[in-house]
Amino acid sequence: MDAHSLLTAKDVAVMFADPAWAAKFPPLLTVDEAAQLARVPKQTVYSWSSQGLLQGCSRKVGKHLRVLRDKFILKLCNEGLHGN
Fold this sequence. Notes:
Elements: H1 9-15, H2 19-24, E1 28-29, H3 31-38, H4 42-50, E2 58-61, E3 64-68, H5 69-79
Antiparallel strand pairs: 1-3, 2-3
Helix pairs in contact: 3-4
């Protein structure tokens, strides 16, 4: 992918500038919200996490997985998430 087609942090900020959109997908996402945003089943998000594909864009909060929205979007769109 060439540098001109990469999504930037500014692009992501523009995506979530609409208050309704930002409220639906807050900066710290649950697995359900991350799955809905990526349009994949929530088990896929858990699978990505267990394969280490969400490094840098997810955190465990107690027993719960949380996904950092902006980093997740950048990783998903710029690098892709390809697992087994």
